[in-house]
Amino acid sequence: MPSGLVALFDDVTVIARAAAASVDDIAAAAGRAGSKTAGVVIDDAAVTPSYVTGLSPARELPIIWAITKGSLFNKLIILLPGAIFLSEFLPWLIIWILMLGGAFLCYEGAEKVLEKLGGAKHGKTVEDEITDPAAFEKQRIAGAVRTDLILSAEIMAITLSELDLAVWWERAAALAIVAVAVTVVVYGAVAIIVKMDDVGLALTKKDSSSAQNFGHFLVNSVPKLLIALSFIGTVAMLWVGGGIIVHGTHEVGFDLLYNIAHGAEYWVAGVTGALSGVAGWFTYAAISGVLGLALGAVIAFVLHKVIGFEGAH
Fold first, then answer.
1. What is the distance between the alpha carbons of residues 211 and 218, in angstroms, rounded to a whole number?
2. Distance separating alpha carbons of residues 132 and 137, to the nearest angstrom
3. What digits encode the pLDDT tens for the residues 20-58?
């Protein structure tokens, strides 16, 4: 009997260790995969503040919370089951979905560049007059959640393509970890950004001169920060979208773009000595961005000039 109990405890210990190893594997895989989504995450964080522009400061956090809940629903309820189904039964389809999303990112980034260069604006903009605040708020939330669905699909697809976990529930757990972590980081950062000016304004009314100075700094910094985020978001879309296309076409047997990008990366890395890692990566990212801009411009031309699509941002 004692020996039976010892054997049972041994079995329990083995199971516990195996479970712990699985948890470690899931966490490690989620961390590696999550880092690959950085560009899309930057884009998501850069795009979202625009959805509360022009609305009452009192409504900013409730709107961000509504978008956050929509984002979690997108990732955990809509996209995660679909991603697991694809990974189990149609794994070959993932790369094509990934490239479709990459092409969308290229289009979005290129359209922003074209608009900055004087091209026509498509869809509604934040400069449009608000005649019904309640309806406008619902429209903004719905638009943000739709945009988040596309960006979240990219995040989930990139994550799934980077996971090396054989069991479906481990992939599901890793995807869920990345989904929740990305959502918290993105919308937590957005909440901080959109309330910075309010915090700064409150500090300007304090008695302390240092608090007042810091408050004025925050108030003056927010517009510049939003401009910087818009620029970073556009660059991130083109870099990530172009990189997805470069990698995806290589995966399906078309190596030209892959060879150009990586050939340039390796050449620059070989001639820059101590800076080889950074210089090589930057070269690859720059070429991916240029390719993304070219592809996005072609898509924008076809959509707006050939088909006549006006968009609905």
1. 10
2. 9
3. 344 445 555 445 544 455 555 665 666 666 666 656 677
Contact 154, 83 (CB under 8 A): no
Q: What is the pTM of this model?
A: 0.72
Packing angle, helices 209-251 and 168-203, rounded to 10: 150
Length of the chain: 313
Query: 19: burial class by Cβ within 10 Å (0-12, 13-18, 19+)?
Result: exposed
The residue written with tokens 């901080």 in the block is 192
| pLDDT tens readout for residues 136-171 | 778 878 877 887 887 788 788 877 777 777 788 888
Q: Which of 273, 268, 264, 272 is nearest to 246 (CA)?
A: 264
Q: Which of 44, 56, 196, 67 is nearest to 140 (CA)?
A: 67
Question: What's the token pair of residue 179?
Answer: 């989904």
Distance CA 266, CA 304 (A): 38
In order of 121, 181, 186, 196, 223, the CA distances from 49 in angstroms are 19, 19, 10, 12, 11
The string of DSSP codes covering the chain is -HHHHHHHHHHHHHHHHHHHHHHHHHHHHHHHHHHHTHHHHHHHHHHGGGGGTTS-HHHHHHHHHHHHHHHHIIIIIIIHHHHHHHHHH-TTHHHHHHHHHHHHHHHHHHHHHHHHTTPPP-S--TTS--S-HHHHHHHHHHHHHHHHHHHHHHHHHHHHHH---SSHHHHHHHHHHHHHHHHHHHHHHHHHHHHHHHHHHHHTTSS-HHHHHHHHHHHHHHHHHHHHHHHHHHHHHHHHHHHHHHHHHHHTT--HHHHHHHHHHHHHHHHSGGGHHHHHHHHHHHHHHHHHHHHHHHHHHIIIIII------
